[in-house]
Amino acid sequence: MLDFARARSRHATRRAAAPWLTAAALLATPGVGAEVPAIFRDADLALGEQLIRQHRCSQCHAERVGGDGSAIYRPQGRINTAGLLRGMVEQCNAALNMQMWPEEVTAVAAVLNRDHYKFKD
Does tRNA processing show up as a keyword for this record (predicted)? Predict the structure, then answer.
């Protein structure tokens, strides 16, 4: 009888600890639980990556600023919030007549934020 009570107690302890262990494992996983600006929270990153390749954003940036084009990111004092970043992508969309939908603009901006800007607001 004593072994049954001990086994039952261990089972209850494991069951109570399971949600905490799951949460800890998820938070320890890179990228999960990371702070993302609200504007990018539901963005489709795979779509953003695809659109960046499709519209050849890197090539255009390299033509404009030289080198690999990365110098275009974070112009001094111009883009300092996630909203301004999304606005800049929308400006490129309109100026170059890319005809991207709003959710596509957001997806591209979310990828740029993840890879270059790292805004957390």
Answer: no
